[in-house]
Amino acid sequence: MSLRSVEASTGISNAYLSQLEHGKIRMPAPQNLHALAAEYRVPYVLLMELAGYPTSEPQPDEPPVASRLAARMGAVSDEEEEQLLEYLAFIRSRKRRLE
Fold first, then answer.
1. What is the pLDDT along the chain (99 residues), one digit of tens a residue?
2. Do 9 and 35 belong to one domain?
3. pTM greater than 0.70
4. Are residues 41 and 77 in the same domain?
5. Cα dihedral: 38, 41, 45, 51 (round 10)
6. How far apart are CA 20 and CA 83, in angstroms?
7. Is 87 among the domain residues?
8. Cα 47 vs. chain centroid, distance in angstroms?
């Protein structure tokens, strides 16, 4: 299928589809994934998983994910957390000086 034909049948712009295809859009909108799942006849939940969206209910014994950053990085030690905070403070201070 061409991007133009997918655009015609889903209403999702050719430009958006191209960016999605080349990995420039990291978190596509769920409604777009739903339309693409129907168009390509693949399970919607599969596209949601591939896009990084949670697709199952959290288990009661699992701690909730505190943030998107924590979900991407995984567990960090106390020492790593302290170093990350120091580095973030450094980046923010440089940004303020440049503004």
1. 899 999 999 999 999 999 999 989 988 999 999 999 999 999 999 999 888 888 887 666 655 555 666 766 777 888 988 898 899 898 998 877 776
2. yes
3. no
4. no
5. -80
6. 34
7. yes
8. 12
3 state SS of 10: helix
The encoded tokens of residue 33 equal 């994934």
Say which amino acid occupies 93: S
Q: Is residue 91 part of a domain?
A: yes
DSSP 94: H
Type of residue found at 34: H
Query: Is 63 within the bounds of a domain?
Result: no
**Residue 56 lies inside a defined structural domain of this protein:** no
Q: How many structural domains comprise the chain?
A: 2
- Residue 32 identity: N
